[in-house]
Amino acid sequence: MDTENLQIQIKTFFGLEQVLAEEVRKLGGRNVEIKNRAVNCEGDLGFLYKINYSARTALKIMIPLLTFKAWDENRFYDKLYEFPWDDFMRVDQTFAIDTTIYSDRFRHSQFMAQKMKDAIVDSFKFKYRKRPDVDARDPDIKFHLHIDRELVTVSIDSAGDALFKRGYRKEQGEAPINEVLAAGMLQLAGWDGKGNFLDPMCGSGTLLIEAAMIAMDLPAQIFRKKFSFQNWKNYDDELFQKIKEVRIERVKEFTGKIVGYDLDPDMLNAAHLNIEAAEMEDVIEVKRQDFFESKKDLFPLLMVFNPPYDERIEITEDDFYRKIGDTFKKSYPNTLAWFISSDLDAAKKVGLRPSRKIKLFNGKLECRFLQFEMYEGTKKIHKLAGNQPD
């Protein structure tokens, strides 16, 4: 592995590619290239450690090791058997294989993963008379097998567990928002920690915690206990510790307020537990409050939220979204507000024209991330006056 010029593929969610690319550039990635749900770049070993530790919108960070064409299972096995796996793992380490297959020739992902496992094990047995074991739950080394028709690509996963697993979530609601999606939404909304932040339907607190981490410039994985790259044969612990130290020195004090409302006591309790786990009790305030009966008391203010659209809402969706719009207009002048919704028809009942619409996915649900600008008086008058919403 050329540790000075690593080819790196970083996975993210649809709609967050530009946000991730900007993060990668700021962290020092070279030759940044935007793909579908991914960003490719180049960097050295230190950069690889840095993006694993700091990137907020990365899901997986992988290094392609081997690419070849296979027309049948025998060639597939032979090419993998010939590869020097002992350059990347020891015989006493465990490994696991994730698969993604788009091929008419090789249709069964479990079968192809088994063939790859056999090739790796047989290669070690031939060289060392011993074999590494598979551990699907907590492997030392994680490989990814990608087959697109005849093209086979094998990559090594530098993080291990997906990077949305920040380490602070102790409790979750019925439909919690993914941490990476939350961080991406906040960056799309322009949150940089200047001013104040409100999530008026905060659930278990993910948007609040991610907002606080951005505001304080805390690295995304500050609570993570381990990365897969720490098990690699070329792991440089001194380099990784130095990168963490430099990164922690950048953490700053946040002087604004981050506030969450919710009506559900169970959700508020979950939010308290998660905020405590993230050591953010002094930064984030959550309280039982009906958003529809609230008034703006933070200036300037950015609002971002994920309205609940499940059985906990006893009112009709039309009525619910109309109330959102009424509350925006009546109680939150000079405010920039964003929310995400999968119910595009119901979202029209807000009664305000969104100034931006961004297509995102919350799990498998196609959503729109909608921006609303509330002006006190008419938009035209405020533009002429040079006033912009807080």
Tell me the layout of helices and strands:
Blueprint: E1 6-11, H1 17-26, E2 30-35, E3 38-43, H2 45-54, E4 60-69, H3 73-82, E5 94-102, H4 109-128, E6 133-134, E7 141-148, E8 151-157, H5 179-188, E9 196-199, H6 206-216, H7 237-248, E10 258-262, H8 265-277, E11 284-288, E12 301-305, H9 317-331, E13 335-341, H10 344-347, E14 356-362, E15 365-374, H11 379-385
Parallel strand pairs: 5-6, 5-7, 9-10, 9-12, 10-11, 12-13
Antiparallel strand pairs: 1-3, 1-4, 2-3, 4-8, 7-8, 13-15, 14-15
Helix pairs in contact: 2-7, 3-4, 5-6
Label this structure with key terms.
390 residues; alpha/beta; VC0802-like; Rossmann fold; 2 domains; eight-stranded mixed β-sheet; seven-stranded mixed β-sheet; 11 helices; RlmKL-like_Mtase_CS; RNA-binding; rRNA (guanine-N2-)-methyltransferase activity; rRNA (guanine-N7-)-methyltransferase activity; Class I SAM-dependent RNA methyltransferase
Kindly describe this structure:
The chain has 390 residues and is α/β, with parallel strands linked by helices. The chain folds into two domains: 6-157, VC0802-like; 179-218 and 228-385, Rossmann fold (3-Layer(aba) Sandwich), CATH 3.40.50.150. The chain is built from eleven helices and 15 strands. It has an eight-stranded mixed β-sheet with strand order 2-3-1-4-8-7-5-6. The protein has a seven-stranded mixed β-sheet with strand order 11-10-9-12-13-15-14, with helices on one face. Helix 4 (109-128) links the parallel strand 5 (94-102) and strand 6. The termini are far apart.
